[in-house]
UniProtKB/TrEMBL annotation:
InterPro entries: CobQ/CobB/MinD/ParA_Nub-bd_dom, DNA_Partitioning_ATPase, P-loop_NTPase. This is Conjugal transfer protein TraA. CDD domains: ParAB_family (cd02042). Residues 11-219 form the CobQ/CobB/MinD/ParA nucleotide binding domain. It comes from Alistipes dispar. SUPFAM superfamilies: P-loop containing nucleoside triphosphate hydrolases (SSF52540). It holds the Pfam family CbiA. Gene3D superfamilies: P-loop containing nucleotide triphosphate hydrolases (3.40.50.300).
Length: 257
């Protein structure tokens, strides 16, 4: 672990709802914590839905009531020797204070923030300015793309260039990529993105129904969970492993796996 270093604050953030920021936060956080051996925490300040905090409640309920998941949790705890990562229900006003409180109580390598999709609120701007890295999911949809590019331009040109932010890097990541779409479309979009001075990660995330698969009474292989990593059979072809490795490289964190 990187006990001697300050934790990295990271947010998958965009102002467009349904872009996948919450799902990516959970998938990457769980993979890093349960597979790669990092100590992570999640601060959920996406009021009022608090999707990740809600997911943790559902996960815990099933894990306590269902013998299958109870056994999985016990096996995982025994193997890893570490508990589930904390999910803190917060607000944009309290986000940084809550993060400092939990990182003052235990050592963490990364703290993920699930932020609301707006930049017209002083508390959101304060939270964004305290991130070390911001990664915005984008899709090949003109409305989504234009909205996200405006959002990231504000982050870069207004928040980051004030000189009082902690932001070290901002990136875009292609999400919900339809394999049937021609790559030329993405090349055109990436030319526009490059002209704006923004950077796109090499890894893209395909569009797949597996991203919505949570713990279930039927014990189907799970993908999205705050208590367990994605099932190996579903992880293949999802590019979550590649995305996580690329993020670790960007953050200059060594591989604990």
């Amino acid at each position: 672990m990187l006990m001697e270093k300050e934790p990295v604050y990271l947010a998958f953030s965009t102002q467009k709802g349904g872009a996948g920021k919450t799902t990516l936060t959970v998938l990457v956080a769980s993979y890093l914590h349960y597979v790669k051996g990092y100590d992570v925490a999640v601060v959920d300040c996406d009021y009022p839905q608090h999707s990740i905090a809600g997911m943790r409640q559902r996960d815990l309920k099933l894990a306590m009531e269902d013998n299958h998941y109870k056994a999985l949790a016990y096996e995982q705890f025994t193997r890893l020797g570490k508990k589930a990562y904390p999910v803190v229900e917060s607000s944009t006003e309290r986000a940084i204070d809550d993060a400092e409180r939990i990182t003052g109580q235990a050592a963490f390598d990364l703290v993920f923030f699930d932020l609301p999709g707006t930049v017209n609120n002083p508390s959101v701007i304060r939270a964004l300015s305290n991130m070390d890295y911001i990664i915005a999911p984008i899709s090949a949809d003109r409305v989504v793309l234009e909205s996200t590019l405006r959002y990231m331009t504000v982050v870069n040109d207004v928040i980051r260039k004030t000189g009082v932010s902690n932001i070290k890097g901002t990136y875009l990541v292609w999400n919900m990529v339809d394999g049937r779409e021609k790559s030329e479309l993405y090349e055109v979009y990436e030319q526009v993105i490059a002209e704006l001075g923004l950077h796109v990660l090499k890894t893209f995330i395909p569009d797949s129904k597996r991203f919505r698969r949570e713990l279930s009474a039927g014990h189907r292989p799970l993908f999205r969970s705050t208590l367990f990593p994605a099932d190996r059979s579903l992880l293949r072809g999802s590019n979550i492993e590649a995305l996580t490795d690329e993020v670790l490289t960007l953050l200059n964190l060594r591989d604990n796996g």
